[in-house]
Amino acid sequence: MIIRGCGTRKKGGLYVMSELNEEGGGKPIEDFLIDPIIPALDQKPFRSPQFFQTKDKIWHILIWVGKQFYPTPIHFIEEAGLFGVSRRIPKHAPLYLLTPKKSKMLFIHPKAFIKNANAIFNKSQYKCPKNKTHKETETCIGMHYALYAAQNNDNVLRINEYYNVPIREKIPQQDAILQIANKIENKKIQYGPGIFMIVPITSIHYIPNNNESDKEVIEKLKTYKVPSFLSTADYSKKEKIN
Ligand SMILES: [Zn+2]
Predict the structure, then answer these.
(1) Which of 73-82, 124-133, 160-169, 211-220 has the lowest mean pLDDT?
(2) Which of 103, 106, 190, 225 could form a disulfide with 115, with the two C-beta atoms 3.0–4.6 Å apart?
(3) What was the pLDDT predicted at 220?
(4) How far is the CA of 216 from the centre of ligand 1 (A)?
(5) Residue 90: is its pLDDT beyond 90?
(6) CA 167–ligand 1 middle distance (angstroms)
(7) From ligand 1's centre to the CA of 128, what distance in Å?
């Protein structure tokens, strides 16, 4: 059983998936990070995933990652690195709009963008996962790893009560972490919403209730362009529908 920050999958739940294993292209999680983070400072929190279309007529989904489940963007990123992405979506969502692999899920986190990054970090104090050289006003995802290490004095990221991962090579040296920790104490970090990760939509999973209510959902799934499956909450089985 996979237990995510947002819990386990539920019967009757419809899930949009990005399988980042071989099935999904087998690329490392770094390839899906948006770095520098794109600020979205005016964006208010929202519950239902937002569908939007790009100029090429492809539809995508913007998803708000709640900080009650994922305290920082790196908790979400590392979980996706372990398990891929499985995101519950309301049954009335227009999933027929989606195109396999071209449609994407974009993730926004309320604390992704660091407004005063230049007051906290200098270039030697974090390691960019994409090896970019950043401008002073930019937020690098590597800053979140360095902040976590400084705030928790730990080289292990506790994703939730079940899973830990070593904080990868993204961490700067211990003395740099101490310097950051001192700065955090003196200067409060100013966070704002930002987009930090984009993944391709590879499939849709439905966990049946095993009653009459399944029929309507299954009929809809048959019409979707994205490969759709009946699955189990624990991912142990799946049966293709379309
Ligand atoms: Zn970076």
Answers:
(1) 160-169
(2) 190
(3) 94
(4) 45
(5) yes
(6) 16
(7) 4
Using CA atoms, how far apart are residues 208 and 214, in angstroms rounded to an integer? 6
190: left (phi over 0), alpha (psi -120 to 50) or beta: beta
Distance (Å) from CA 106 to ligand 1 centroid: 18
pLDDT at 172 over 70: no
The confidence score (pLDDT) of residue 51 equals 97
Residue 66 Cα to ligand 1 midpoint, Å, equals: 23
Q: Residue 39: pLDDT above 80?
A: yes
**CA 117 to centroid of ligand 1, rounded, Å:** 12
pLDDT(200) > 80: yes
Span from the CA of 139 to the centroid of ligand 1 (angstroms): 7
pLDDT average, residue stretch 182-201: 91
| pLDDT score recorded for residue 21 | 72
Q: How far is the centre of ligand 1, averaged over its atoms, from the C-alpha of 118 (Å)?
A: 14
Q: Is the pLDDT of residue 168 over 70?
A: no
